Amino acid sequence: MFKSLLIANRGEIARRIVRTARRMGLRTIAVVTEADRTWPHWREADEAVPIDSYLSIEEIVAAAQKSGADAVHPGYGFLSENAAFAEACAAAGLIFVGPPANAIRTMGSKAGAKALVGSVGVPVVPGYSGERQEPDFLKQKAYEIGYPVLVKAVAGGGGRGMRRVERAIDFPDGLAAAKREALASFGDDRVILERYVEAPRHIEVQVFADALGNAVHLFERDCSLQRRHQKVIEEAPAPGLSAEMRQWLGATAIKAARAVGYCGAGTVEFIADASAEPRRDATFFIEMNTRLQVEHPVTEAVTGLDLVEWQMRIAAGEPLPLKQEEIAFTGHAIEARVYAEDPADNFRPSTGRLWAASFPEATGVRIDSGVEPGSVVTPFYDAMLAKVIAFGADRAEALRRVQAALERIRIAGPRTNLAFLAGIVTHPHFAVGGVGTDFADRELAGLAGEPLDQSLAAEAIAEWVRRAGDGPAADAPGPWSRADGFQLGGLRGAGALAVEIEGQAVTVGIAWSPRGPHVVSVGGKAPASEPEAEIVWGEGQAFVLARGRQLCVTFPDPLSRRAAGGASDGEVDAPIHGRVVDVAVATGQHVSAGDPLFTVEAMKMEHAVTAPLAGEVHQVRIAPGDQVEQGAAVVTIKPAEARR
Ligand code: ADP
Fold first, then answer.
1. Are residues 495 and 438 in the same domain?
2. Does 562 reside within a domain?
3. Strands in 243-401 per DSSP E
4. Is residue 22 part of a domain?
5. Are 42 and 371 in contact (CB under 8 A)?
6. Which residues of 36-61 are buried (b: 16+ CB within 10 A; e: fewer)?
7. C-alpha of residue 201 to centroid of ligand 1, in Å
8. Which of 29, 109, 305, 540 would you call most buried, defined as having the most Cβ atoms within 10 angstroms of its Cβ?
9. Ligand 1 geometric centre to CA of 301 (Å)
10. Bond prior to 321 in cis (omega within 30° of 0)
């Protein structure tokens, strides 16, 4: 076995590989980009090398050489299916923990892969995967295949460069769109055509081959729960598969791997007609992925094997650890991918700092996460935060465990798909098993459930008012203090506060009692609470977490808003809609930062505003008794000359 390993990846996959490598006694070397400094993967390795890009072959090979690594594990994504990278590693004398470059290259082409496996008797989806690309020729082929057809990029991956075309009249446009997307994503606009299998199941087989010519399979995974052709939930074994069908799938996958002279870990993917129990005559090869996959843990859970360890042993030239008849599976495992994305906004990736990120420990549950509190989710990389893998004696137990785990994960800051995932694993159709790839897209509206009610923000708001009123305290949840110009300390009776809840302006009614302030209404509704709800504090914000959902409350902080708007320029806004009760300054007057400027009253609550900076009062656009709009620029201060 080699002695040291560089992991050319990030996040949960880098952490997962480090874990096995360490257990095997290897020295681990991570790579990290500047954008990933707040992520923990690189700190867990024995050494970390800064790089500019996880996609730079040159940088990664140089990092491996500089750190004295013997081997390189590409993880998945990035360079994991890049034949040139495998070759560059070999040329630099590094062991590449992955298949031979020629297998990557052959299987990297959907056309080449289909031709090759078809030639050894593996059934492929009927279609056209030849070289000819003239639109009229392809249209004729589409007619022969029969509509609907799927236009797929030869070099495709991740569901990109794929277009379903319903009718001949739509073919030219569909073809052109698929080609454009293929060229943009893969630099190759060649396409193949396939018969569109209506709402199929996606069933894939984990295979392993060693350099001595042995090959085995580790059974199948069902990855039919997809959104727009991208996997969301995976499980092993596939529900409702007969023993005979399972045996056939495994043998067929091995045939495909042998056809390309495979070595290492790979996945042979099939689609199967979902209208009945999977049958041989309605199951087709679609592609082979020449790497470890995101969903490999469900196979690990049911077989009890460590797939990364197998990869390393094979890369080191060892034979496969087990023979086919020694590999068995028990129970059921389900994996759910947790993403920083907003289901309410078309699943748009959601970025920002994670004010909370905690993952429960529970029997039968494994959580591979890439983040910790304080990690910043950037737009530069895939938005996956973690994956939850639950194992049970049977599918029902695995489902219960994955649901319980999803509900106990706490993430504050970026939006997540947690509630959407919980909606899937508790859905009665999903509980039956065997749903098709269209399930999540079809049921979308019902899956994410209701958002949290705004009135759940009451407790967080009361807490904020208490702290703001108390002035700067060591344990203050936010950065507020009297100096920030927002004073509540002297207030008594009832009042109103303008906050933002989920980006919407909301007026909160507040009453003072001898025990302090409490919230009497939120946006005109009575305050609510939920026993499970929890408050996490961010900068100028509170996040109310409950049932995998969050409610973001943004508090008024005129000073920092100004600063954010472009370096304190001396423009001072009204913090709230209301009536000016006092103006403490006049034009020409000199003020120091923190001096009182004016006071606005809204619903019997006074908001005193102080000078954000020192200087000369240049303009005062208000007088006592005036009504002002929230955000209106009412006082201008000419900043004092900055001393150099
Ligand atoms: P990619 O490499 O982009 O992931 P795949 O060929 O692996 O593309 O297909 C991804 C998904 O697209 C499949 O899991 C399935 O949901 C859908 N799909 C692929 N081929 C077909 C087809 N011929 N008919 C219907 N759906 C398909």
1. no
2. no
3. 264-272, 283-289, 332-339, 341-342, 348-349, 352-353, 356-358, 365-369, 376-377, 384-392
4. yes
5. no
6. beebbbbeebebbbebeebebbebbb
7. 10
8. 29
9. 25
10. no
CATH number at residue 600: 2.40.50.100
In this prediction, residue 515 carries a pLDDT of 80
Q: Calculate how far, in angstroms, residue 263's C-alpha sits from the geometric centre of ligand 1.
A: 24
Task: Say yes or no: CB of residue 599 within 6 Å of ligand 1.
Answer: no
Shared-domain flag, residues 515 and 605: no
- 15 within domain boundaries: yes
Distance in angstroms (rounded) separating the CA atoms of residues 457 and 385: 26
Contact status, residue 151 vs residue 129, Cβ threshold 8 Å:
no
For residue 72, what are the domain limits? 4-97
> Cβ(317) to ligand 1 under 6 A?
no
Which CATH number characterizes residue 79's domain? 3.40.50.20
Q: How far is CA 277 from the centre of its chain?
A: 32
Extract the residue ranges of the chain whose pLDDT is less than 70.
469-493, 557-568, 603-605, 641-644
**The two three-digit tokens of residue 273, written as one number:** 């007609």
On whether both 373 and 227 belong to a single domain, the answer is: yes
In a shared domain, residues 268 and 346: yes
**Which sign, positive or negative, has the C-alpha torsion 245, 193, 105, 48?**
negative
**Alpha carbon separation from 621 to 487, 572, 618, 624, 634 (Å, rounded):** 22, 11, 10, 11, 5
Instruction: Examine the domain organization and report whether 317 and 237 are in the same domain.
Output: yes
* 403-415 pLDDT per residue, tens: 999 999 999 999 9
For residue 511, what are the contacts with CB-CB under 8 A and spacing of at least 6?
493, 494, 495, 517, 518, 520
Query: 371: which 2 tokens?
Result: 């983040």
pTM score of the predicted model: 0.84
User: What is the Cα–Cα distance from 195 to 185, expressed in whole angstroms?
Assistant: 23
Ligand 1 nearest-atom number relative to CA 160: 3
CA angle (56, 61, 63) in 5-degree steps: 95
